[in-house]
Amino acid sequence: MKVAVATLLFAAGASAHTIFREVAVNGVWQGDGNGLRLPSYNGPIENVLSESVVCNGSPNPITSRSPNKISVRAGDQISLRWVHAPGSVIDASHKGPIMVYMSKVSNALTDTPNSGWFKIYEDGLGSDGKWAVDKLIAANGVVTVTIPSCIAPGDYLFRGELIALHAAGNYPGAQLYMECAQFSVTSSGSSTFSGVSFPGAYSGSDPGIRYNLYSGQRTYTIPGPRPISCSGGNPQPTTTTQPPRTTTTTQPPRTTTTTPFTTRTSVAPAPTTTTRTTTQNNGGSGAPLYGQCGGRNWAGATTCAQGTCKFSNEWYSQCLP
């Protein structure tokens, strides 16, 4: 089954897509797909109101559902591995945040809750201008988090999520990549958390979902609730900021503005809502489905082997169905 699932995921050849598909407990990897629910395809979810934002799903149906729960203890270090294809994590253009949620369930093998999701980890835009995805790529697809020491024992779903913002200037456009792992947690703690609902935790107008990566903004508000704290308190929204720059521009509410953090020397204007298309026959030459097919300084294919080349912004066009 593992070989078949891997073949389905990677044979499609989708450019830059990724999938959370393996867990380590205190540095010990549990096996590819073990304890996870994996879809047939490593593509994103763009509709934040879809039921598929829980653990993935249509248009990427869950076809590999592990019969195992992963045994962990409160306080354990859990590593998540994201993979696009062997030797590849995700395209470097797909910058964005990474988050991890948990939800207590009666049976991790069968339950798929919409509510009760509490966040235990988030990382967005660092003061050095690096995104969580940049750090993930540098770490060969691995990010490590801690199971809260105070949570009550029992079964939990463990939801790892990456959001790619390269086409998020308009909604839908942000690409959400998430999968769920099935955990059985032993703990001496007793804390439970009400959490948020999926769908419901995000909206298409959230500044962390609709975000122009190229407009010169140097702050980013991570969507959803803040991570829970075993010491109590009411965490405030996380807005991460790059170092001060020498010039500033006006940005939308809830952000601080300045020149871009990238190596470009000019600020890209906010994109207009336009769409350019080039329809290709399936099986022809050109970029693969969901691959990049245009953008400033783009030197690759500008036609699509499958789908239509759709303009997202000055820097990015993508082959979409």
Topology, please?
Layout: H1 2-11, E1 19-25, E2 28-29, E3 36-39, E4 62-65, E5 70-73, E6 77-83, E7 98-105, E8 118-123, H2 132-138, E9 142-146, E10 154-164, E11 175-186, E12 219-221, E13 239-241, E14 292-294, E15 308-313, E16 316-320
Parallel strand pairs: 5-11
Antiparallel strand pairs: 1-2, 1-6, 3-4, 3-11, 6-9, 7-8, 7-10, 10-11, 12-13, 14-16, 15-16
Question: What can you tell me about this protein's structure?
Answer:
The two termini are 28 Å apart. The chain is globular and about 55 Å long. It is mostly beta strands and 321 residues long. The protein has helices at residues 2-11, 132-138, and strands at residues 19-25, 28-29, 36-39, 62-65, 70-73, 77-83, 98-105, 118-123, 142-146, 154-164, 175-186, 219-221, 239-241, 292-294, 308-313, 316-320. Strands 3, 4, 5, 7, 8, 10 and 11 form a seven-stranded mixed sheet that branches.
